[in-house]
């Protein structure tokens, strides 16, 4: 799954980490690939110190086997933690991240790719490899129009692209569904397309606190109603990807 958005700061990394941790708690082997080169913050959200990044591997400063970091049962690979990532050769980076995905796929049931905001090269790369593109929606006109442009671009290339959406910073369930509906109405009108709703996360002090404590909410507040929301969202995601994983597995076994 790749977590994407039009606008920045809408909760992609927070959602990626919590969904990944929820999948882990459900017994799956999960890896997170932080593809937000330069502004990577998944390690910070997990209170981990990164010793090796994909960029360092590309530069010959570490080995492929040094990249996976075990964070309490969750695997994390960081693309780059150097803000000067524009100096990186993007072609080499994407090629290296492809090799990382292949290596991770052998030992994990799910890989969550956290991307930078917008429809840049990295988000497109991630979506191209994901079985599900999770769009983070928030209730702001600019965020909705940004994400619409983003979807329009992707659906223009592949009209069957498997997107799903979750709403963040919602006031309540009704407000979240309204936002999702509004977005779907636009998509329906202009692109004749609907995207399934996976759930919502309210704007919450518990999330803010879990980010400050550098611990996923799913670990810090297992009794919170938001834990249940993440459980619901994760179940919905599983409902959309497992079938495909099983059929892909079949194809791979036949090869
Ligand atoms: N539901 C929420 N309630 C309260 N605070 C939240 C919520 N979701 C995210 N935040 C806060 O918003 C900030 C941005 O979240 P996050 O870093 O996950 O966004 P992002 O989309 O990954 O940003 P970027 O585009 O920079 O990668 C974080 O400081 C986080 O604490
Ligand atoms: Mg982020």
Textual characterization of the structure:
The chain is α/β, with parallel strands linked by helices and 255 residues long. It has a single domain, classed as P-loop containing nucleotide triphosphate hydrolases (Rossmann fold, 3-Layer(aba) Sandwich), CATH 3.40.50. It contains 10 helices and 8 strands. It has an 8-stranded mixed beta sheet, with helices on both faces. The two termini are 24 Å apart. The chain binds adenosine-5'-triphosphate (ATP) and magnesium ion.
Q: SSE order in H/E notation?
A: EHEHHEEHEHEHEHEHHH
CATH class: Alpha Beta
Question: By CATH's scheme, which homologous superfamily applies?
Answer: P-loop containing nucleotide triphosphate hydrolases
Compute the number of helices.
10
User: Span from first to last CA?
Assistant: 24 Å
CA-based shape: globular
How many β-strand runs? 8
Summarize the helices and strands and which ones pair or pack.
Blueprint: E1 2-4, H1 12-25, E2 30-34, H2 42-45, H3 54-58, E3 69-71, E4 74-78, H4 90-107, E5 110-114, H5 121-129, E6 133-137, H6 141-157, E7 163-170, H7 173-191, E8 197-202, H8 205-212, H9 217-220, H10 225-254
Parallel strand pairs: 1-5, 1-6, 2-4, 2-5, 6-7, 7-8
Antiparallel strand pairs: 3-4
Helix pairs in contact: 1-10, 6-7
The structure holds adenosine-5'-triphosphate and magnesium ion (MG).
Short description:
By secondary structure, the protein is of the alpha/beta class. It has helices spanning 12-25, 42-45, 54-58, 90-107, 121-129, 141-157, 173-191, 205-212, 217-220, 225-254; strands spanning 2-4, 30-34, 69-71, 74-78, 110-114, 133-137, 163-170, 197-202. Adenosine-5'-triphosphate binds next to α1, β7 and α8.
